[in-house]
Amino acid sequence: QVQLLESGGGLVQAGGSLRLSCAASGRTFSTYAMGWFRQAPGKEREFVATIDGSGANTVYADSIKGRFTISRDNAKNTVYLQMNSLKPEDTAVYYCGQSRYERITRSVYDYWGQGTQVTVSS
């Protein structure tokens, strides 16, 4: 059974940085695209970034492009989200997801982690 465990969230001042990690287990990690999503209070979950199984291709939401970087280490079964120049509007619970496909996708995810809180103070 697939398990995804996020870590790295916390409280940071505006302009600061955080690095989120998501450790996966349960099936061959490199076979599946991974994604990061976030959900702010009172809002729907939104797409942040995705990376294909090889790590060669990535896609980002416009709202975070140039500030966040998604990467993966297939040897460690882990996907990362490096977040720089954080803004108060980045405050949300961040979730990692594992797709059913190897190719990048914004929407087709079968498994989710429990989420990690990111709070950016002004």
Give your account of this protein's structure.
The strands form 2 sheets. Strands 2, 4, 5, 6, 9, 10 and 11 form a 7-stranded mixed β-sheet that branches. The protein has a 4-stranded antiparallel β-sheet with strand order 1-3-8-7, with no helix packed on it. The protein has no helices and 11 strands. The N and C termini lie far apart (40 Å). It is globular. With 122 residues, it is mostly beta strands. The chain has strands at residues 3-7, 10-13, 18-25, 34-39, 46-51, 58-60, 68-73, 78-83, 92-99, 109-112, 116-121.
* Secondary-structure element string: EEEEEEEEEEE
Name the helicity range: under 10%
Radius of gyration: 13 Å
**End-to-end span in angstroms?**
40 Å
Summarize the structure.
The protein is mostly beta strands and 122 residues long. 0% of the residues lie in helices and 51% in strands.
Question: What attributes characterize this protein structure?
Answer:
122 residues; mainly beta; seven-stranded mixed sheet; four-stranded antiparallel sheet
Secondary structure elements and their pairing?
Elements: E1 3-7, E2 10-13, E3 18-25, E4 34-39, E5 46-51, E6 58-60, E7 68-73, E8 78-83, E9 92-99, E10 109-112, E11 116-121
Parallel strand pairs: 2-11
Antiparallel strand pairs: 1-3, 3-8, 4-5, 4-9, 5-6, 7-8, 9-10, 9-11
